Every structure is written in structure tokens, then in C-alpha cells.
Amino acid sequence: MTATLATSRFKDVMAGVGGPVTIVTAFDEGAPHGTTVTAFASLSLDPPMVTVALSENSTLLPRIVRSGRFGVNVLAASQRGLAHRFARPGVDRFAGANWRADDGLPRLAGCLGWIACDVTQAVRGGDHFLLLGAVKDAQRSGPETPLIYADRAFGTLLPCPETMPAVTSRTVS
Question: Which residues contact 40 (CB under 8 A, 6 or more apart)?
Fold first, then answer.
């Protein structure tokens, strides 16, 4: 199999894997910066940590590395327009957005959740950098459904009629 074919197949498989839609933010020289990120995950509970992946070409990446901090705005299903705006290059992403500084980071209003992080490590992985973030603050804003990206489109998550209990350290063998 050629590298091009393998990459194409990999991208097709990964398109079917749904991910949360977030906007990762930071301040640089007093100005807010941010971008839409779906490569976001919980990493550790003890200590609380998350991870985000940013392209090596991201304009946000050097700003986060310089400041040593980033915020994660977990988008609600109603915030699809905000996700599109922060994904577009060459626009003032914060123009018209409802936001404020929280814990020294740009926080967008109306998000499902908010996480403020200090960078503990930046690890190169192919054409991306994986930022490991120590959670300094986390808040859930409401019961709204999360915005999800799957099959190259924004959507939402609906619970299955038969829900399973959450996996805890007591249920993992």
C-alpha cells in the first residue's frame, strides 16, 4: 500500500470517530487568540490533566508556548457558528464574540464547559504538537448537549436509551 493510500484510508477511518469541539485560547501581548480544536481529551484524574493537539503550523501554538497557559472552551451544540468562525484563517475570530478574561485566559460565553491549564509539556507527534495541560480550574456551565465533530460535520450527542454506568477505577479490571 502506498503512503498516499494509507493516509487517505487513515483520514477516512478517523472521520468516523466523533470528537468534542473546543476552542482553545490564550493571551499573547495582551490580545486574545484562539482556534477550533477537536483533538482534545482528558488525560489524567490525579493530577487533573488534559491534552490538545495543534498543528506545527498553528499560529496559536507559539503563543501558548510563550505564555505557558491555555484555556479550553468546550462548545455546546448551539455554538456551531462559533466553531466555524474560530476555524477560519485570516479573520478576527474574537470580533463580535462574547468573551471575558478568566484566570488570565480568554473565556467564551455560553460554552458547556471551561478548563484553564498550565502547559506541563509539548510533545512533537508527526506534524502536530501534543500539549499536556495541568488543570488549574474547571467549570461546567449547564446541561446543554455538547457539540461533536464526526463524518466531517458538526452534530450533537444523544444518549442511548440504555445507558451504562460510568467506568470508574472500581469497575476497571
Answer: 19, 20, 22, 24, 50, 51, 52, 53, 72
